[in-house]
Amino acid sequence: MNDIVPLLGIETEYGIIREDQGESDPVEESMRLLARCEAKSVFKAWAYNRERTHQDMRGFQVSRLAQDEEEDEFCEEDRKRPYSYWEMKSDRVLTNGARFYNDHTHPEYSTPECRTVFDLVAHDLAGEIIVGDCVRLRNRDLGGDCLQLFKNNTDYSGHSYGTHDNYLIPRKLPFDVWVRHLVPFLVTRQLYAGAGKVGAERKNEDGFMGLQLAQRADFIDSVLSIETMTQRPIINTRDEPHATQDYRRLHLILGDANMSPYATALKVGATRLVLTLIGAQKLAAPFELADPVADVQRVSRDTTGKVLLTLQSGKTVTPLEIQEWYLEQALKHTGLSDETEEWDWVTREWGRTLNDHRHHPEKLADRIDWAIKQSLFNDFMEAEGLQWGDPILQSLDLEYHNLNPERGLYYSLRDQGSVAGLIEQGKIDDAVHRAPQDTRARIRGQVVDSERDHIKNIHWTGIEFNNGEYLDLSDIITKEDVVQVLDSNKEQFAWK
Questions:
Q1: For position 334, what pLDDT does the model report?
Q2: Are residues 244 and 379 in the same domain?
């Protein structure tokens, strides 16, 4: 049976700061960062007119989003700037099929569409290299290391920026079926997907001190919402497939930015398996949590995985028990995917991680971000005689995610061999320049490489050329689709 979740992607918004300025302008700094990108690309040609952000998967269209009002405020402020809208967005589409742009106050890197989890992790890591190279070049211009970027989700001043994992899923099942089966899984996948966070920032905070599993947990306020900047949901309901209407794009905004490639692979891989089970209608009746939004925070603040969550039936269950149940379902149906190597890796490592979490949590400190931080910070506190409430720990938390190879704590651990690797460096280096060869990103990247001077505008769904011709990518889903398009255009792969 063909894999029913054919395409995957990750969008990462990076924290950005100028340490030599009291109040640096993130819009200005993001623009200047993008301007230093030396990767071959199409610049300032993104087709915003093809965006469809107001259609809701629940079957209606909203007239106004909270982010629209914020965008209006930004636009009012931006009128004072000596730049056009296109200059501020600074969109780049790269030869590897990725998009790199200024999401107003954050540089954002969106991987190309990938077909396998391991390709996706390679392209996520390639994004770190591309963004990091821009930081290095920008700092060279500035004559120091004052510009710092962080692959994380909070600035510890009450602001959160996102890391969104995306999955193409079939539309044939009602949306509420996906929701019913996904919510308990997503609430509890923090056990291995959380990037770790010192302290808390939730409104009306109760004074929590310690290490949380996840950075985004404090900012989740609803089960379902089309919003992404307020009332952030467990499941985002934006209906924008970037494909034909046979599909939905599940756009998950509750996840963390993982530094560990192992954690990224397990997060995306386990989610993909669960989606495959849902699409094939192989899951039994799911757990129904009585208060899933509160449970997001409850799970995040208990690193043991054994906090009791109340079901609508009144019974209780632990996060570990929920995750173990989903894993058990995946092990029963290993023939659902063509990607057998991936399925085997995910189920094996999912099981190993849950078992370690239950019986030997210290063993997680070589591959799961929150556990790496827990071990690192405990050692530091013991050596310095500190407690969790000391503000220096939040500074160390930020430095764990720093893209500066001289300062990033994760990079230091990686270089020492203290954390698990996953993807060979050669594959990551290849992903910096080359798109996945089995998705439509290959076509986009090839056109950018050979025809960038003839492109009028470009989008995930298609490319328009200066002569009026249009290459539609919206229905290119399978490997066979990619080959067919390349074969049919091999004699005229130049739209001039």
A1: 82
A2: yes
